[in-house]
Amino acid sequence: MAETIFAKIIRKEIPADIVYQDELVTAFRDINAQAPSHILIVPNKAIATAADVTHEDELALGRLFTVARKLAEAEGLEKGYRLIVNCKEHGHQEVFHLHMHLLGGRALGPMLSITND
Ligand code: 5GP
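# guanosine-5'-monophosphate complex -> structure
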């Protein structure tokens, strides 16, 4: 797969507001935040999409959730939040390095946009 900008962020070759990193995942603030807290949690291994995961990825993918929980607590999202993984064209995925969005800090409304684009 082609390398994305997220691989460079993980390797700290380009700047990003990294809020967490361990041997399996990296989390950094989205450059175009859609909510007061908008953090991307990314496996360090470059998996292109949710359609490309294998059983070998289960530890790293599970880590996305435990890190999301810790970051949600750190961000003070006790009223709740949303975790999103967009997949390929119909999921409106823009960066083809699998990532989980953590969004919170305001009421987020219904899950899906009513627009068609
Ligand atoms: P997707 O649509 O693929 O699920 O989400 C990609 C996200 O990556 C978008 O919310 C976009 O704002 C964010 N993003 C794209 N390029 C960069 C970047 O260079 N730095 C950071 N921090 N976020 C980025």
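# post-check
Helices lie at 5-10, 58-74.
Residues 25 and 71 are 13 Å apart (CA to CA).
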